Amino acid sequence: MSHLLSGNQAIARGAYEAGVTVATGYPGTPSTEILENTVQYKSDIYCEWSPNEKVAFEVAAAASCAGARTIVTMKHVGLNVAADPLMTLSYLGVEGGMVIVVADDPGMHSSQNEQDTRNYAKFAKIPVLEPADSQEALDFVKLGIELSEQFKTPVILRTTTRVSHSRSIVKFSERQTNPRTIGLEKNPARFVPVPLWAREMRKTVEKRLHDLQAAAAQSKANRIEWRDKSLGIITHSVVYQYVREVWPEASVLKLGFAYPYPDELFRQFAAGVKNLLIVEELDDFLEEHIKALGIACKGHDVIPNIGELSITTLEACRAKMEGRTIAAVPEPKYAKDLPARPPVLCPGCPHRGIFYALGKHDVIVTGDIGCYSLGTFKPLNRLDIILCMGGGISMAQGLDKAGEKRKVVGMVGDSTFFHSGITGLLDIAYNKGSSTLIVVDNRTTAMTGHQDNPGTGRTLMGQPTVEASIEEIARACGIKRVFTVNPYQTKATQEVLSRELDAPEPSLIVSRAACPLWEGKRVGGIRTIIEDKCKACRACLKLGCPAIDGAGKKPVINKHLCYGCGLCQQACPFDAIVNLSEEKK
Amino acid sequence: MSSQIVSVVLAGVGGQGILLASEIIAQAAMNAGFDVKTNEVHGMAQRGGSVIGQIRYGKEVYSPIIARGTAQVLCALEQAEALRYADYLAAGALAVVNAQQITPVTVSMGAAKYPDNVEQKLRDQYGRLIYFDASKKAVELGNIRTANVVLLGALSTGLDLPLEAWHKAIGSCVKSQYVELNLKAFEEGRKMV
Question: What is the pTM assigned to this prediction?
Answer without folding.
Answer: 0.96
